[in-house]
Design goal:
A hairpin with an 8-residue loop joins β12 and β13. 41% of the residues lie in helices and 16% in strands. The strands form three sheets. It has a twelve-stranded mixed beta sheet with strand order 9-10-8-7-6-5-4-1-11-12-13-14. It has a three-stranded antiparallel beta sheet with strand order 15-17-16. A two-stranded parallel ribbon has the order 2-3. With 513 residues, the protein is an alpha/beta fold. It is globular and about 65 Å long. It has 17 helices and 17 strands. 49% of the residues are buried. The structure holds S-adenosylmethionine and iron/sulfur cluster. The site of S-adenosylmethionine has 19 residues, from β6 and β7. This is Heme chaperone HemW. GO terms for molecular function: 4 iron, 4 sulfur cluster binding; catalytic activity; metal ion binding. Keywords: Iron, Iron-sulfur, Metal-binding, S-adenosyl-L-methionine. It holds the Pfam family Radical_SAM.
């Protein structure tokens, strides 16, 4: 257990530091996903075994698109996701042909599986032309012939690329929800990202969705360059006045060689200003009747088109099965019925040529992954549950045989002193500013395990060096640990500063990186 003094110092020194969101991949960070020998067939076999034993959970399904329209500055000035510049419909449809091939590889493994939710994300999934929405749903039905009526099937896109005809095709194909990346309603602030979105695009897209009975979610970002509590509240007021039921309000993740990090850093609100924005947005939305579902998601009850979808939350502590198809898509598989040390997180190729080449050769296009030990799996599930703001102590005990409070008592007690956490007999919950500090809470919970993983990496690196020396000198090296870390961590890895964007894709679906 972490030393109480360490916990205090950690919290004190991190209160004013920028929160770097790691929600997308749960635990551990993709930096540690270094196994290049991910046994996808074995994982498929495990999936079949739990199904045969009647212990399978539903499968969440994600399909990604690599492409986005060009902006100036590039990548919308802030985006940390791997994306490629849109090269036209022919390239997009050619890419989709590869996704269909990948789906074929999964067909047998998924036979008889129950679908949970579907997320078509990216990149920009509303770049597709009308007929492609039907093909996307044909692909889903080909793998999951029985789709439950309550399954959420979401397509993500940007307002200026929706049209009435596309929205109609989305509806007719059987999808039932759209998610729009708006970021800022304020046109002046939005322009800083190089996106050419107008308020008209946003209003029009929301109207089409409503007219056609599609549930509509919007993504906003706070902590934007030049943003103030005032401009943020004005945007939220506008969305509330348009009767948007489902609002995702992300804090900006800053990092990498993005325009915001390199050229607008001085225009960014400080962490404490972001905290003020978090508080003001939470209070405003809850006053308006919205419920806080996660650190970032707010939903108003009574959406005639909604089905109670909880983006990014996994309420089950004993299983997770998410299948991600496409460029840079992420998959997770684990089920306590087969032993938690057989669970995996893995990511598809982040290089489009390599993604395609693998499929041409009939291979799963997986780049690398992480094999969980029991402690990793437990943390991964704890993170997912905590993203939904609470962890049920009885459920945790049933899944892992330990009490979640006792296991991390010094962390919860330390956070409790700052008013970030409340512990009752039933649950441990994030309260007050706690949800804003979710990344810090996660870091504390994972601190001991990260120390162990870092030690393992160091040992593996030493073993690799010894083996190289031995090869050079012709003597036997100590190869211990080399099977654990095949590629050195960080090689080709997505930025450690992953954006939260696909939090929705992550648990509700297997997000991509
Ligand atoms: C990866 S994007 C894909 C959807 C679509 N291309 C778009 O831009 O709206 C999904 C969401 O991620 C969020 N996002 C992207 N980069 C982010 C960052 N650096 N910090 C916080 N949120 C980010 C945005 O809110 C965006 O709507
Ligand atoms: S924010 Fe969306 S549109 Fe912009 S680069 Fe990222 S994925 Fe593409």
């Amino acid at each position: 257990m972490l030393d109480a003094g360490f916990v205090h110092t950690y919290i004190d020194t991190h209160l004013e530091q920028r929160q770097v969101n790691k929600i997308q991949h749960g635990f551990p960070s993709p930096r540690y996903w270094s196994r290049t020998d991910v046994p996808v067939e074995e994982i498929a076999e495990d999936r079949r075994r739990v199904r045969a034993a009647g212990r399978d959970s539903f499968v969440n399904f994600y399909v990604g698109v690599p492409y986005c329209i060009q902006t100036d500055p590039g990548k919308c000035g802030y985006c940390l996701f791997p994306v490629e510049e849109f090269q036209g419909n022919a390239a997009l449809e050619n890419y989709f042909g590869y996704v269909e091939r990948e789906a074929d590889l999964y067909r047998e493994a998924l036979s008889g599986a129950t679908l949970g939710a579907v997320y078509f994300g990216g990149g920009t999934s509303n770049l597709y032309r009308e007929p492609l929405y039907h093909r996307l749903m044909d692909l889903v039905r080909g793998l999951f012939p029985d789709i439950a009526p309550q399954a959420d099937i979401t397509l993500e896109g940007i307002p200026q690329l929706f049209s009435r005809a596309k929205m109609q095709a989305i509806k007719d194909s059987g999808m039932n929800r759209v998610s729009m990346g708006i970021q800022q309603v304020d046109e002046r602030l939005n322009k800083l990202s190089g996106r050419k979105q107008t308020t008209r695009h946003v209003v029009q897209s929301l109207e089409w969705a409503r007219e056609l009975g599609l549930a509509a979610n919007v993504d906003l970002i706070f902590g934007w360059p030049q943003q103030t509590v005032g401009t943020m509240l004005k945007d939220l007021q506008t969305l509330v006045s348009w009767n948007v039921y489902d609002i995702t309000h992300y804090e900006l993740n800053v990092g990498g060689p993005t325009d915001f990090a390199l050229n607008r850093f001085h225009e960014l609100p400080s962490t404490l200003a972001n905290l003020e924005m978090y508080r003001a947005s939470r209070d405003f939305l809850t006053d308006q009747g919205y419920e806080q579902i996660t650190a970032y998601n707010f939903r108003k009850p009574g959406d005639p088109a909604g089905r109670g979808y909880e983006e990014g939350v996994n309420r089950f502590l004993d299983s997770m099965d998410t299948v991600g198809l496409g460029y840079a898509a992420v998959s997770f598989f684990g089920n306590s019925a087969i032993g938690t040390d057989r669970s995996w997180s893995f990511i598809n190729h982040l290089s489009l040529p390599r993604y395609k080449q693998a499929l041409e050769e009939g291979r799963f296009p997986v780049e690398r992954g992480f094999s969980h030990e029991a402690a990793d799996w437990r943390l991964a599930m704890l993170f997912r549950s905590l993203f939904g703001l609470t962890v049920n102590r009885a459920d945790y005990r049933a899944a892992f045989g330990t009490d979640v409070y006792e296991e991390f008592a010094t962390v919860w007690d330390g956070l409790g002193e700052y008013g970030f956490v409340e512990v009752s007999d039933e649950e441990v919950g994030l309260v007050g500013d706690g949800p804003f500090y979710t990344p810090m809470v996660q870091a504390l919970l994972a601190e001991e395990r990260y120390r162990a993983l870092r030690e393992r990496e160091t040992r593996a690196a030493q073993a690799r060096r010894a083996a190289r020396r031995a090869r050079r000198t012709g003597t036997d090296g100590d190869g211990a640990g080399t099977e654990e870390v095949v590629a050195s961590p960080g090689t080709g890895a997505p930025a450690d500063t992953e954006a939260p964007a696909d939090a929705e894709a992550a648990a509700a679906t297997p997000a991509r990186g």
